[in-house]
C-alpha cells in the first residue's frame, strides 16, 4: 500500500542522497548503520519501558536507512549484494523492534502481560512469513506483490502505537498489535492465494 508512494518518496530523497553521496558514504554502510541504530534503540530502550524515546531513536535510524537506495541510484552502485544486504538487515531490524516490545511486556516495569508479549512475537513471525513468501515466490518465477500489510505498513504502525503508548495513551499498543496480527495474517493468506492461482494456471509438463 505505502509502496505506491515510492515514486514521490524517491523524488524527495534523491537530492538528500546526492548530498550524502558527496561525503563518500556508501549505500551498504548506510544500510548497516541504520540497522545497528534500530537494534540499539529497540533492545536498549524498549525493554526499559522508554517507548516514546525509543521510538524517536528508532525512527531517526529508519529514516536514515531509507537513504541507501537514493545513494545507490545517484552513485550507480546498485548491486544484487546491496539488495540482499538491505533485505536481510530489514529482517534484523524488525526482529529487534518486536523483540524489544516483547521483553518490555514481560518485564518487571510493565507487569506480566504475557498475552501481549505473545502477540508481539506472533507479529514478528507472521511478518517474517510475509517477506519470505514474496522472496520464495519470486525465486520460483511468480509475481507476489499483493498484501495489505507489507513491511512499510507494519513498521509504521508498530512505531506509532509504541510511541503513543510511551506518551500514556491507553490501550493503543494492544489495539495496534491486534491490528498488525490480523493484517499480517491476511497478507500471508493473500500471498498464498495469488501464488496458488498462478501455479494452477501453469500447464503441467507432459511426461513421455
From TrEMBL:
It is found in: Cell membrane. One of its GO terms (molecular function) is magnesium ion binding. Contains a di-nuclear catalytic Mg(2+) center. Pathway: Lipid metabolism; Phospholipid metabolism; phosphatidylinositol phosphate biosynthesis. Keywords: Cell membrane, Lipid biosynthesis, Lipid metabolism, Magnesium, Membrane, Metal-binding, Phospholipid biosynthesis, Phospholipid metabolism, Transferase, Transmembrane, Transmembrane helix. InterPro entries: CDP-OH_P_trans (IPR000462), CDP-OH_PTrfase_TM_dom (IPR043130), CDP_ALCOHOL_P_TRANSF_CS (IPR048254), PIP_synthase_PgsA1 (IPR044268). Its cofactor is Mg(2+). GO terms for cellular component: plasma membrane. Its main location: membrane. It comes from the Bacteria. A CDP-1,2-diacyl-sn-glycerol binds at residues 28-31, 69, 73, 79. It catalyses: a CDP-1,2-diacyl-sn-glycerol + 1D-myo-inositol 3-phosphate = a 1,2-diacyl-sn-glycero-3-phospho-(1D-myo-inositol-3-phosphate) + CMP + H(+); 1,2-di-(9Z-octadecenoyl)-sn-glycero-3-cytidine-5'-diphosphate + 1D-myo-inositol 3-phosphate = 1,2-di-(9Z-octadecenoyl)-sn-glycero-3-phospho-(1D-myo-inositol-3-phosphate) + CMP + H(+). The active site is at residue 90. Its EC number is 2.7.8.-. It is a multi-pass membrane protein. Mg(2+) 1 binds at residues 65, 68, 86. It holds the Pfam family CDP-OH_P_transf. HAMAP family: PIP_synthase (MF_02241). Homodimer. Belongs to the CDP-alcohol phosphatidyltransferase class-I family. This is Phosphatidylinositol phosphate synthase.
